[in-house]
Prior knowledge:
CATH class: Alpha Beta
CATH topology: Rossmann fold
Distance between the termini: 16 Å
Strand content: 5-15%
Structural class: alpha/beta
Largest sheet: 6 strands, parallel
Shape: globular
Number of helices: 11
CATH architecture: 3-Layer(aba) Sandwich
Number of strands: 6
Amino acid sequence: MTERLILLPGWGLDSAVLHPLAEALDGEVHALPALTSVNPQDWLDELDARLPRDCWLAGWSLGGMLASALAARRGASCLGLISLASNACFVARPGWSTAMPQATFEAFYQGCEQQPEVTRKRFAMLCAQGGEDARSLSRQLQGHTLVADQAQLLAGLAILSRLDNRAALASYAGPQLHLLADGDALVPAAVADELLALLPRGEVALLDGCSHAFVLEQAQLLATLMREFMREAGDD
């Protein structure tokens, strides 16, 4: 693969979760901003300032949502966009109901405030739910807990709930690939058709027998799909 690919991780877990996928693609993993701001534009400003231009942007979960928003901001200077287990809106809102219910998200946020370690362990279990070996995968994820202060973790959750990428996905004219997992406990697989309807140019694919953490459990399969899509986009 000759075109540069940048990968952004999700919330609450370190960048090393994406290393197997990055190595298979010869891509670069960049950490998310270590900010306490709850304004998505501040996060996008930092990413825009430190990530190279004229490359493909990809990301998992929150990282995929930020990559999507940044791709729309950059326009033609972004070669293409790939999201992994990302929704246009992580939390349900008017006009976008196929997402996490608001009450469920608020309970999780409160748990992160009051019992952060317990909640982050539960988060690892939710990420692994739906995978072929959820227990083993959950243990692996717990070994990748992000070292960050409480304010940064809570800010990341706030960004996750506030990002609304419907307009971004509809406006970005470059090639887009959005990969979802059918067993995902955090991003409903049923959103696939709704995502596809937003895209001016792109594809949405649903992987069978996978969890939200398919970036770790199915790294080679994802790499194959991503590499093929990038190759075909380059041939257009």
